[in-house]
Specification:
It is found in: Cell membrane. InterPro entries: GPCR_Rhodpsn, GPCR_Rhodpsn_7TM. This protein has about 300 residues and is mostly helical. It has one domain: Rhopdopsin 7-helix transmembrane proteins (Up-down Bundle). It contains 13 helices and no strands. The N and C termini lie far apart (about 50 Å). About 35% of the residues are buried.
């Protein structure tokens, strides 16, 4: 691969190109291993499907699909000048998986919110079948939105994997609908969950500690989501409204890297957020220590709240 001659469309120098390829190569290897392991445990080692498992499997599928497209991202970013369907189709598939990685955590947040705020109704509402329907609807909605975006871009002059400095308005619209709406829902559900947990009256020290651990886990989940995705989407808006320049493009690349690390972080978080995952994984001191701070169904630390499992 002649990096110095072929990477001048999206990457400013050969050194930047090598860093780019090394980073995505590392994410490809590590992320693929972690997500394949997660899918194997969820699909082959668990005897009973729960709504938590349904959401986690869909999240792992979305992350795996995104990771498998990293080589194509590298190719079209660094070497190819094509902007026809050979690039638009992989880009659309890439974006579907990327925004499903955002939409499913939102669905998990809503699921937890229902379990905490409406424990009686949750016994009916929270089932594996309903979770599967929710995931199917999310896949359909995100795919439909992406199809509309691709058609819009092609009509106005297609571009492929961020090689052009200007930001198409369809990118901004999809960013608002695909990220900021799920972010608002997730923030609302998270703080409602935290409020509900903190107002529960518990006298035992162990119960108080468990509440604190659950609150910490919920807030940590939101924090990871915000750190991974919010800077990138703010940069997208700045790029569109302020115009593109070298500084914004450099910041965009950095925040895009950070967003893609979420593929690996999701797989690591499975150990924290899924009791069934830990019980199906070979026992080690590491997983045992994680299990001690994550009594799942997350964030339901009390038997009266652990519904639908």
């Amino acid at each position: 691969m002649n990096v110095s001659n072929s990477c001048n469309l999206a990457l400013s120098s050969p050194g930047e190109a090598y860093i780019y390829m090394s980073f995505y190569g590392f994410l490809f290897i590590v992320g693929l291993i972690l997500n394949i392991l997660a899918l194997w445990v969820f699909c082959c080692r668990m005897r009973k499907w729960t709504e938590t498992q349904v959401y986690m499997v869909n999240l792992a599928v979305a992350d795996s699909g995104l990771i498998l497209l990293f080589p194509i991202v590298i190719y079209f970013t660094c070497t190819s000048c094509l902007e026809d369907l050979s690039c638009q189709v992989p880009q659309a598939i890439y974006l579907v998986n990327a925004y499903m990685s955002i939409s499913i955590p939102m669905a998990i947040g809503v699921d937890r919110y229902v379990a905490i705020k409406f424990p009686l109704k949750a016994k009916v509402l929270r089932t594996p079948g309903r979770a599967a329907i929710v995931c199917a609807l999310l896949w359909a909605v995100v795919t439909s939105m992406l199809a509309f975006r691709v058609i819009w871009q092609i009509q106005d002059g297609a571009f492929c994997f961020w090689r052009k400095p200007e930001m198409h308005i369809s990118v901004v619209v999809f960013s608002l609908l695909g990220f900021f709406v799920p972010l608002g829902i997730l923030v609302f559900c998270t703080f409602q969950i935290v409020y509900s947990l903190l107002k529960v009256q518990r006298r035992e020290i162990s119960e108080v500690r468990q509440i604190r651990k659950s609150v910490s886990m919920v807030l940590a989940s939101l924090l990871v989501f915000v750190i991974c995705f919010l800077p990138l989407h703010i940069t997208i808006l700045l790029n569109f409204f302020l115009g593109s320049n070298d500084r914004i493009r450099r910041v965009f690349k950095i925040f895009n890297f950070i967003a893609h690390t979420n593929c690996c972080l999701d797989a690591i978080c499975y150990y924290f957020v899924a009791k069934e995952f830990q019980e199906s994984t070979p026992a080690t001191s590491l997983t045992s220590s994680w299990y001690s701070i994550a009594q799942i169904p997350w964030p339901c630390p009390f038997p009266t709240l652990a519904v639908g499992q």
